[in-house]
Amino acid sequence: MKAKVLTLDSGDAGEIDLKDEIFGLTPRADLIQRVIVWQLAKRRAGTHKTKTRGEVNRTTKKVYRQKGTGSARHGARSAPLYVGGGKAMAPVVRSHEFDLPKKIRAAGLRHALSAKARDSKLIVLDSASVKEAKTKGLAKRLGKLGSGHLLIVDGAFEPNFQLSARNLAKVSLLPAEGLNVYDVLRRDTLVMTKAAVKAIEERLA
């Protein structure tokens, strides 16, 4: 599929051929959802912890005699029924991470990129470079590209461009090697340089 290439000032810089098997698919929500759940599960800390009755420091003296009281049998104050006792089936420190095949991960990224291209939320730039590190000037130029939050992807960002963009609330920078489904979909518009497109096509080929 063909896509227009723009300059940073929204000028025309020709066209680029995007691979249909990466940018021209019919997006599958199930694949995208599986990859996002996998990504977010890896980010979970899993540090929630509550003491069980074996970890609570309370007396183990028998509360009352075994028989004849009409009450349940208890041998320790650490039982979950007592105030201050341990918690039954308490949460423990664990990892929420699970495995997802590489082919599914790659397919999820292809479908996420295709979803952006289908919704006309994919912009290809000739290059992402500025002469001076000026935030105001860059904000004005990026404002012409699209409204909402921009995710700009490049192979290797120029230092001046990074310095200019780091204070912009609605602009995020991401190297091509770190491109992922969650970041692509949580931003309004995906902006990729020609170098980033080439790197992604090589990665997903």
Commentary on this structure:
This protein has 205 residues and is of the alpha/beta class. The chain has two domains: 2-44 and 97-204, Ribosomal Protein L4, Chain: A (3-Layer(aba) Sandwich), CATH 3.40.1370.10; 46-95, no CATH class. The protein contains seven helices and six strands. The chain has helices spanning 20-23, 29-43, 102-118, 135-143, 159-165, 181-186, 194-204, and strands spanning 2-6, 12-17, 122-125, 150-154, 171-175, 189-193. A six-stranded mixed beta sheet has the order 2-1-3-6-4-5. Helix 2 (29-43) crosses helix 3 (102-118) and helix 4 packs across helix 5 (159-165).
The CATH superfamily title of the largest domain: Ribosomal protein L4/L1
Largest sheet: 6 strands, mixed
Count of spatially separate domains: 2
Q: What is the overall pLDDT average?
A: 93
Percentage of residues in helical conformation: 25-40%
CATH class of the largest domain: Alpha Beta
Low-pLDDT parts are none
Shape: elongated
Strand order of the largest sheet: 2-1-3-6-4-5
> What is the N-to-C order of secondary-structure elements (H for helix, E for strand)?
EEHHHEHEHEHEH
Find the structural class using helix and strand composition.
alpha/beta
Approximate strand percentage: 5-15%
N-to-C terminal Cα separation, in Å? 16 Å
**Counting H and I runs of at least 4 residues, what is the number of helices?**
7
The tally of beta strands, per DSSP, is 6
The name of the CATH topology of the largest domain is Ribosomal Protein L4, Chain: A
Which architecture name of the largest domain does CATH use?
3-Layer(aba) Sandwich
Query: How many whole angstroms does the radius of gyration measure?
Result: 27 Å
